[in-house]
Amino acid sequence: MVLGSSLQHQRTVKKLTVLITPQVSVPMRKVLEKVFDEILLVDVLDSGDSAHLALMKRPELGVTLTKLHCWELTQYSKCVFMDADTMVLSNIDELFEKEELSAAPDPGWPDCFNSGVFVYRPSIETYNHLLQLATEKGSFDGIRETQLRNWNVRCLP
Which domain of life is it from (predicted)? Predict the structure, then answer.
């Protein structure tokens, strides 16, 4: 609610789409309908890689793979993904002018990007590739610099 409301408050002209999982209650879905233009139901994608996540003391990060569903939004040519715990303090519509894949560097992992906010182009091919990569490489929360170069990631200032 905070993310959607803050985007509205900053007068975005972009369509607001939220991805929700089946665990979101029907009453909450009704509330979300008041803030977002489109609500899409997606399945939870859990890495099940408790070993790496336990090392970081972040077991909840296993379900962050669920955000990969954003690449299925092929009805859009370009999107800005924002985690639900993001609060927008100024208009961010200019992010749509950035190239794919633009993201902020992660302060805790200097050779990684933060996946909480990023610019991307939806693609079923990319979605399938990311699912395969997650299956083969596990859920380590951090994409290494060599993978960033392969994906042509641009870090936002």
Answer: Eukaryota
